[in-house]
């Protein structure tokens, strides 16, 4: 668990992206793919252009990511709409509806069925690609 507070959802997305990159580095991964549903974040990381003005706090997190990227051999950022990722959508919806702070080191129990279904779908998709 990483205690954190953010001014905006954009900043929270930037922090989450930075933590994912730090985690990949700590695991000593060399070839990584990062997926995100915040298009402005993915656009900035892939093109370093501001499609719209990014908040300075968010930009600081994204610039920290850029400083870590040379430690990887290959990095891919991929925009994935939230509607395609039911788990991320459920977590985001629950967070928006929450009126209190939530801290947990375990995934919330309401997503276990979704995680299982996503895993099954991913395995089926991979099997259909095999020749």
TrEMBL record:
Q: Which InterPro entries match?
A: RNase_H-like_EbsB-rel, RNaseH-like_sf, RNaseH_domain, RNaseH_sf
Organism domain of life: Eukaryota
- The residues covered by the RNase H type-1 domain are 5-95
List, alphabetically, the Pfam families matched.
Answer: RVT_3 (PF13456)
User: Can you tell me which residues the record assigns to a coiled coil?
Assistant: none
Drop me one GO molecular function for this one. Answer: nucleic acid binding
Name of the protein in question: RNase H type-1 domain-containing protein
Q: Which organism is it from?
A: Macleaya cordata
